Amino acid sequence: MKITIHILILLTLLSIEKTNGQIIYKLSDDSIKSSAILKKSISPVSFISLGIIINNSKSEKKFNTYLRNKVGNNFEFKIDNYLQFSPIVEMYSADILGIKAKNHWFDQTKYLLIANFISSTITITLKIIINKKRPNGGYHSFPSGHTSLAFTNACVLYNEFKDTSPVLAYSGYALATTTGSFRMINNAHYLSDVLIGAGIGILSAELVYYLEPLKNFNPFKKTKNITFVPQIKNDSYGFYFAWNF
Question: Which of 135, 182, 197, 232 is close enough to 148 for a disulfide, judged by CB 3.0 to 4.6 Å?
Answer without folding.
Answer: 197
